[in-house]
Amino acid sequence: MKRFHHIGSMPLMIAFVALIASALFPACSLFSSGLDDKQQERLDADVKEAASQYDEGHYDKAYKYATLAREIDPKDLRARVIQAYSLMQLGQNDPFFENISMRHVPGARQLFEDVLKDSPNEFKARQGLAIMAFSEHLVFHDKKMRDFLGMELELRAFSEKVSSLKTLSPNDPGFFGKLSDLRAEYDNFRVRYIRCYETRQYFEDAPPISKNPDPKLKLLTGRTWAEDSTYVDAIRFDLDQRRFDDAAATLATLREGAKTCAFYWEQRSLERLEYALKLYTQLESGAPWHAGTKRDLAFVHVAFGQFWLNKALEDAKRDAATKLANIPAEREAEVIRSFYCDEGRHDSELRPHVKREFADAIANLREFVRLDEEREKQRVEHVEEQEKIAAGDESNIFMNNLVGRFGEEMQFAIKEARSYRKMTILLLIELYTFPIYGVQDFEQATLWVNRLRDIDDRDPIFYFIWASIREQSGDAAGAIEDYDNYLARSSIVEDANRRTVARSRMDRLKLEAPQKN
Description:
17 helices, Methane Monooxygenase Hydroxylase, Chain G, domain 1, two-stranded antiparallel ribbon, globular, mainly alpha
């Protein structure tokens, strides 16, 4: 199921790691000692360059300069933290072979843990482990689970097509055409299945230690690759020989393997999510004033809410199969969501879990916005204060230039913070608008739309949001008008995906309108 596809043009959850990756290293709590002036100067220069490269997104260079700094002082906390974050961004969480030094070196996880041994309260190291746990859930384990669920659905579709061929005779019109299409479709699937094995990222729960996979190694399916590949090839052979019963049996075996893998990665994903929640809760208790922690904790609750919601929708789908008839395939997801939201037709024991997690997410998102707005106000006041001081001595060119640069940097920081805050408010509006999250509140959604307008009143997304709120509240005519306004003002290039959604919803509302009159 797609996540947060109603309003946002990009998956906000996937954007999480990028959102928290910038401006991590303004200072650290421990500094080097016992160095002469030249060594200290070189060390500071390398650390500064490492931080600059990190902020520019050049994580390999950031790691390089942090490593140079540690050659001067292996214990320098700043360099160690930048090293760890750089490796995390490069996907090197665990020990790996470094080509430059030609040896195995610690990954980001061990570097963070080593920092905490020397400085147990180092916030950035604790934050790094929390970010890592959540990103491993979101980017790796959860993705693997969804990929295997998709594989299982694809194999089920193959089974249904094989069953339909069994009912036909070779003399029936279209038999060989359908068989040819099925073989071509399966060949495409087979290539992707083999690629999954070769990338080593799905069937094994361990980082690759060699370039060539071991065909005798037992996979998460419970079989070796040699055994699995035999099944994969056998299906194609059985299709060629028109042995449809054998092909169906082998497809069922592969389906069970895919479900086994999906369940395994679901459990691993949940473990990482629970660990992330624990770490972020600890961070929040130690720094309740830290806006970023509130935001990150909110995203963890959103992920938990999505987990329970996916489970609830699976139950609703099974229930709908017994209560609803002839659900069009192209509208299945929409019908199931509507069925789940109708408490009169579907009673879900998971609904309270879904509501609790999204309510906790909302509480943290609101607090993040409050703290972030306070921080912006402080920045503005600080700039104004410095400008007043500089204005008192216009002859001091150096001071005026310094204050000018400081003001520019603060304005950039404010602009960047507002873009993050805008994403957060979009998520708040999403949760308040749609009933599926269990926290629908049109009054709050409207309030936050106005807050969003305070940040950027020229963004045409307001029309899309108003249209979504009006549609959900039953004002079809108003929704059509706002969708039309959005299409007239949005970019056909930058907003292409959202424009497609707006046009589809507007067309549907126009078709439904006569039926309601």
